[in-house]
Design brief:
Elements (H helix, E strand, L loop, with lengths): L13 H10 L11 H14 L4 E5 L2 H10 L6 E6 L3 H4 L4 H6 L2 E5 L8 H6 L11 E8 L10 H13 L3 E6 L2 H8 L14 E5 L9 E5 L8 H7 L8 H10 L4 H21 L5 E2 L7 E5 L5 H7 L3 E4 L4 E5 L6 H15 L1
Parallel strand pairs: 2-3, 2-4, 4-5, 5-6
Antiparallel strand pairs: 1-7, 6-7, 8-9, 9-11, 10-11
Helix pairs in contact: 1-10, 2-10, 8-11, 11-13
Length: 340
């Protein structure tokens, strides 16, 4: 059964698996003291420039939580979308490790905008109130929409106005880059992002994410925070080797181009079916739609997916690097038969 539930359901891309096998053939230094880690960091510098700090971690929650921890103190608050992964899907990990309050901001198609954000920056210098310190955005968003460069710059300008940092959850950053037809730096470092969680797991890796600091001063204590947060992998080479493969020969781009294309095809197929309404712009690798509640269980039996909003019967269909055109068309055909 091929699922449309999450890009986390997919396996490991063969080029990444080959890199893991090669990294498994010898003894090398541990905790990042190895040539694989060195080469992977240099790969990141080709995309973002030399004046960065790169740290590898196990997973996206670890990347987000530790990146935010580096920017905050326990009396601070973090502003994010009401649908942000850190707010909805990372349980209480952000609050537990940062000790900060997460403040949800109303969003449109998953995005938050300066006016709504600024309305949440309240009671500055009031010792009785948590002090806003970070704006966190997701690129692509949880609705698989993509911030434009100008939108990110506007949020960065607001952050600087209020002496806040800008954090980006880039678990699907490759899909965003493909949609924008831009390199990574254009909508991160150059747009005013301070700290980036760079995703690999959802784009063909087995596991592993990177935390990237565009201001090295912010990373002064991060090695200790990573260890304290249980995200320091003793055999770091197995994360680094995957990133080296992903960032070589445009593998990241090839994977993301394919997943975005499969989502666009799925949108095209389901838009022709009466009773289906696509609810969000399809810009990355996800399609959100409403459909009759009574057909959901039967459709999930053959191709599992998640119901995003039980009240409105809005569902989420995610495509992966290994999704095929045949699978998309077969899924749409099953959907059409169930409705009619």
């Amino acid at each position: 059964m091929k699922a449309f539930a999450s890009d986390n359901y997919s396996g490991v891309h063969p080029e990444v698996m080959d890199a893991l096998v090669r990294a498994n053939s010898e003894h090398v230094g541990s905790y990042g003291n190895d040539e694989y880690t060195g080469r992977a960091v240099e790969k990141f510098k080709t995309f973002f420039g030399n004046n960065i700090e790169v740290y590898f971690v196990y997973n996206g929650t670890g990347a987000n939580v530790l990146g935010l921890s580096a920017l905050t103190q326990s009396f601070n608050s973090i502003l994010c979308s009401e649908f942000a992964h850190i707010y909805v899907d990372e349980s209480t990990a952000p609050e537990t490790f940062t000790h900060c309050r997460l403040v949800p901001v109303p969003s449109m198609h998953g995005k938050i905008y300066p006016d709504q954000i600024e309305a949440k920056i309240q009671r500055v210098s009031d010792q009785h109130h948590p002090q806003a310190k970070v704006i966190s955005i997701s690129q692509a968003t949880e609705y698989a929409t993509v911030y434009t460069i100008d939108e990110i710059k506007a949020i960065s300008t607001l952050a600087k106005k209020h002496n806040l940092y800008l954090h980006m959850d880039g678990s699907r950053i490759a899909n965003a880059a493909v949609h924008l037809h831009q390199d990574f730096a254009a909508f991160t470092r150059d747009a005013g992002v301070d700290v980036l969680s760079f995703g690999g797991t959802k784009n063909g890796m087995m596991f592993g994410e990177a935390v990237i600091f565009f201001n090295p001063e912010l990373a002064k204590s991060f090695a200790y925070q990573r260890k304290q947060g249980m995200q320091l992998h003793s055999k770091t080479r197995f994360i680094a080797a995957q990133f080296e493969a992903l960032l070589t020969n445009d593998l990241w781009k090839r994977n993301a181009q394919h997943t975005n294309a499969m989502a666009a095809l799925l949108e095209k197929e389901v838009r022709t079916i009466k009773g289906i309404t696509v609810t969000q712009p399809v810009q990355a690798n996800g399609v959100f739609a409403t459909l009759p509640k009574n057909i959901v269980p039967a459709l999930q039996q053959e191709n599992f997916f998640y119901v995003w909003n039980e009240v409105t019967s809005e569902v989420r269909w995610m495509c992966s690097w290994d999704t095929t055109e045949e699978e998309v068309k077969e899924f749409a055909s099953k959907l059409k038969k169930l409705i009619f």
